[in-house]
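User: Here's a chain of 149 residues. Predict its fold as tokens.
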Amino acid sequence: MAMNIYSENRKAGYEYEILEKFEAGIVLFGQEVKSIKTGHINLSGSYVIFRAREPYWIGVKIPPYQARNAGADYGEDRVRKILLSKKEINYLEGRVKQKGFSLIPLKIYENNGKVKLEFGLARGKRKYDKKEKIKKRDIQREINRELGA
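Assistant: Prediction complete.
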């Protein structure tokens, strides 16, 4: 079965050093699923936190599928629960408590008919790391240009 990617956080690779990746289910309403499947979601600026030993996804806005039919209680920026195994929760909660680690959403996609969230255990990059990456990319581009010409 093909995996449909609905949205990717392209800035995550630039802003963060991704150490590990995890797949999780998300507790969504039907209208949110329809909106995601039409591509109306933006992952930038969102993150995963733990409250009372349960993971939650914060900072993501999913607009209503049909604005006129959205209920009065519909909140496009509500906190959404993430579904993980107990083992993953214990591991990630321990790692996030260490200084400098965050859980950053990388992409949202469909896997076997279910909407899944891929997020990464990440450490923020320093400014000089970002400049170094840009420099390497420019050098590689020059090499490719010379070889291709």
